[in-house]
UniProtKB/TrEMBL annotation:
Residue intervals of the 3'-5' exonuclease domain: 343-529
Gene symbol of the encoding locus: polA
Protein name as annotated: DNA polymerase I
InterPro entries: 3'-5'_exonuclease_dom, 5-3_exonucl_a-hlix_arch_N, 5-3_exonuclease, 5-3_exonuclease_C_sf, DNA-dir_DNA_pol_A_CS, DNA-dir_DNA_pol_A_palm_dom, DNA/RNA_pol_sf, DNA_polI_H3TH
Annotated ranges, domain 5'-3' exonuclease: 14-277
This protein's record includes keyword Chaperone: no
Amino acid sequence: MSDTNSSLPSPAASHPTTLLLVDGSSYLYRAFHALPDLRGPGGEPTGAIQGIVSMLQKLRQEYPAAHAACVFDAKGKTFRDDLYAEYKAQRAPMPPELAAQIAPIHEVVRLLGWPVLEVPGIEADDVIGTLAAVGAASGHQVVVSTGDKDLAQLVNPQVTLVNTMSAEKLDEAGVLAKFGVPPDRIVDYLTLMGDAVDNVPGVEKVGPKTAAKWIAEHGSLDGVIANADSVKGVAGENLRKALDWLPMGRRLVTVKTDCDLAGHLPGWPSIEALGFGRPQVEALLAFYTRLGLRTFKRELERASGIEPADASPAPARSHGLFAASNEDEGDLPALPEVGETSHVAVLDWPDFEDWFGRIRAAPLVALDTETDSLEPMRARIVGLSFSVKPGEACYIPLTHNYPGAPEQLPLDEVLARLKPWLEDAGRPKVGQNLKYDGHVFANHGIALRGIAHDTLLQSYVLEAHKPHSLESLAERHLGRKGLSYEQVAGKGAQQIPFAQVSVEIATQYSGEDSEMTLHVHEALWPRLERDSKLRYVYEQIELPTARVLQTIERHGVLIDAALLQQQSRELAERMVALEAEAHALAGQPFNLGSPKQIGEILFNKLGLPAKKKTASGAPSTDEDVLTELAADYPLPAKLLEHRSLSKLKGTYTDKLPLMVNPDTGRVHTNYAQAVAVTGRLASNDPNLQNIPIRTAEGRRVREAFVAPPGSKILSADYSQIELRIMAHISEDEVLLKAFADGIDVHRATASEVFGVAVDQVSSEQRRYAKVINFGLIYGMGAFGLASNLGIETKAAKDYIDRYFARFAGVRRYMDETRLQAKAQGYVETVFGRRLWLPEINSPNGPRRTGAERQAINAPMQGTAADLIKLAMIAVQGALEAENRATKMIMQVHDELVLEVPEAELEWARVEIPRLMAGVAQLKVPLLAEVGVGPNWEQAH
DNA sequence: CTGCTAGCATA
DNA sequence: GTATGCTAGCAGA
């Protein structure tokens, strides 16, 4: 491999004064239609992607340029839409096969090193027009690559046009030859013809020939207009009819050259930032592999001197290859490329001091802990790894313990030496899920501070719907594949403790974990940094939330285990009795916990009617079915009661006492911060977010969530948070008013839907309205509402119609959200969290409509998640600032639970709901309701 | 022992 | 009709 054998474009020959502008949007459609329906390994369409990639490569080869931009249309309205409501109105929605390729196209264009511009509110044409004008003014030769004739109006001595797909080039003479008018008359020419594609009318019956002829005769559009009376024939008639329109038409077809690109192009109005970045070889290879683009992959491998795959995984070393293009990368991210990796074990103090010196000097350090347990509260350190540079890491083995294990540095002394650095908030650290490592250090009496970044949260904010394990991130963003934990420690019953993994293998594995984390950070952070919304979610919501969660998890929850065990005994007794009754009714013994045996008894032996089937075809015995059968037969009722008791016992009263940590005497759940795609938390080991509340039996479990002597449990929950968010986003006047006036929202809904006064709403009507409101939040249809209310689909549809007639703003919101989701592939929360919907344009009907319901629900559920995270940050901030002894102990989506010493009760009762309500100023007031009691049940 | 299904707890 | 996590049963190792 050398610096000069590249078959890639030769940037060494860059002409410093050429500016290459690519009309990405015009090529999207052309590439899509020009190429056959090519598919990747997963069946995903790739035709347009291949077309664009090969076009860009050809273009860059032919026009060595130092500056360039690939410009795409952004979603949303432009000034033309404001000017003319029908603008582009006839345009068919983008075919789903093309829509699915938009995101990958943007991705690959960036990976190829092209600056990408996409400016909300400004069409690609106008961005290009503006850049061309600025480029020409600053002495560049501008080459505009487009498939769209409209841009011919930009041509002048400094600006030429090229259609890369047809290889046609147009300078001033070329434009005149092709269109019959010079570039500065193209606007006039287009105005007369109109543009069917964009739904801009011109003069009826006037095509290219007539337009060019008139302009030649009269010099310009103004000349044509001035002489309109003298034009003969039908065309003349039509011209006179169109006279009022033509000025508007001209404004629509004129490409703007004076747009403000501030905020979208660093250094604007300079175009210096539009430098080519370095192609991200590893990520490109991963991209090509993912989409099955073997030809591109082979070309790139050959060009970068990489052995084609399946041979040994030679490190993708390509430094220097693109060096000549690195001079002006602008601020576009370019991944550092990792050559041979180096992972070294630190086994003596001189090595330790050497590495610790490097760690202290580094601006950002990645770290990872290896432990003897997956339980965060009890894991002990086995080894530590650090990295200050992708590809390089040290591993400090500490308590590896197996026959022949090398002598290792003493854990306590190493930790004592590292402690000041680990606890220094001024020494920035990055990790993958540092909440876990924070617990581990805390187990050793170290408070990890200076958590500047977390790659788990970066990935979650960027693409919540994709996997976030370090392994996946390295593969997806770096094209790197490290050792997996399974490879190192085995899996299942054969898995060995990490302390028994050999130091050599552990060094490789743990070293990779920290240096790949740093590497992933360098790939992901620039993407967040330049996106103000996502950056806000990451820096102001997720990172601080992680710290709060660690605090909550460590506090844990006090459980009255004896009370639960007593409940278990009572439940067991009743279950035994129910079991005997069920066996008698069935005429034989069977396992009441087996849906299969229940089905056998009910539907075969006793001949009861089956009501529905499970996914795999067996007759269902779920709650709905048994409830229906219970009206006519005695056995199903016994089964239902047994089921419900069995659930309580098996999931809660038996299990929670087993989860009490013997060291702390409390239960420490784990909050998963990066699993729920909507932004919600999830709780596990144990799940404290699904403790029963609906039935009296179930609520007894909550009595076992107690406060210690001298304290109380305080529960504060947001009232109707998702409906309030719906009111805020939809700006529906009726809903806004109901909340502003503090009216019970279900009552208000019933009043509107049933046409009665608010104080005349019956409890039945309110119940219906409540179901409707919940249905709306879930993106319901008539069928779902009907089955929930037990009414005819037609009647349900009637209710929905009446609802939407009264709440027109809500209907508009639902329609717009669906459209927006389809157009951009994602929806957003009020705070800018992005919720991707990969199936929103799926050709598969059920999948697509499922995604549409998600699109409706996600902004509401997600905004609620954002709000309560902000509330947790605010509450924790207040507790710490005021040095309170009150502790936050649980979060249940719209509820915060705290343990409050009696001395602070008065304060907490007022301040907690006030803090929760004050985290955002929406168009409706936020309300948090508070309750206090000796246990969670009585705090409601 | 592992992975899947059915069912059900919460917001 | 949205979003989760956990359990018992059961089939195939």
